[in-house]
Amino acid sequence: MANKAQNTAFRLAALAAALLPVYASLAQSQDAAEIDKLTKPGSVIEFGAGYVDEDNNRFGQYNGLNEKGGYGLLDFNINRRNEETGNWLQFSGSNVGLDMRKLRFDHRTQGNWGYFVQYDQIPRYSQYVVNTGLAGIGSGTVTINGQPLRDVQLETQRKAWTLGLDKALPAGWDVQFRYRSEEKTGSRIWGQGTTGGAGQFQFLADPIDYNTQQFEA
Questions:
Q1: Sign of the CA dihedral with 121 first, then 66, 132, and 148 last
Q2: How many Cα atoms within 13 Å fall on the side-chain side of residue 117?
């Protein structure tokens, strides 16, 4: 009985010893794959088409999918890295085919310096379609009943450019600068209810045109 138990233990130990190099090799391969993802990221381009089957002002209020019809879809993330210098180039975009889109370009040397330029665009479509004779919408002067009645859906567009710079300093310090310029234009509804009947209201279009600049260090 003792000899049988010893032989079984020996066989199990030999099996474990044989499998140990295999598991070690698999672990090293997984570690190498994770490192490659960080140091040699791939590039991705995704494209397609979408279709909205009916007008929907609330569904598309901030993404531009407010009207019935087809839309193009495009996302991408392009990466390039110089192995010798540690220099990175990255260019990415999301929702490029829509009114709500984002583009960004990065250039940096790993552990030293870097900069980026980013563009953001966000629409806002009114959830109401107004039948009005108001003339001069979008300007500083409007005229009530200045033209025949027609359907109007007001909107604003927010467009922003951001520039970022960063530099690594000794002893683990770094310095960063950010500059952002944002412009918002368009028109929005201004109005109030009346006592002339249910569902009636006085309508004007409030023109929007302003620029905000922000600097951070």
A1: positive
A2: 3
Burial class (CB in 10 A: 0-12, 13-18, 19+), 2: exposed
Phi-psi region of 182 (alpha: psi -120 to 50; beta: other; left: phi over 0): beta
Closest CA to 63 of 181, 155, 161: 155
0.90 cut: is pTM over it?
no
| Cα angle value 163/76/113 (rounded, 5°) | 35
Residue 157: is it exposed, middle or buried by C-beta count within 10 angstroms (0-12/13-18/19+)?
middle
Task: Tell me if residue 6 falls in helix, strand or coil.
Answer: helix
- Pairwise CA distance, residues 166 & 73, whole Å: 32
Cα–Cα distance for residue pair 211/215, rounded to 1 Å:
14
Give residue 169's Cα distance to chain centre.
Answer: 30
The tens digit of pLDDT for each residue in 46-101 reads: 999 989 888 888 888 888 888 888 999 899 999 998 888 889 999 999 999 888 99
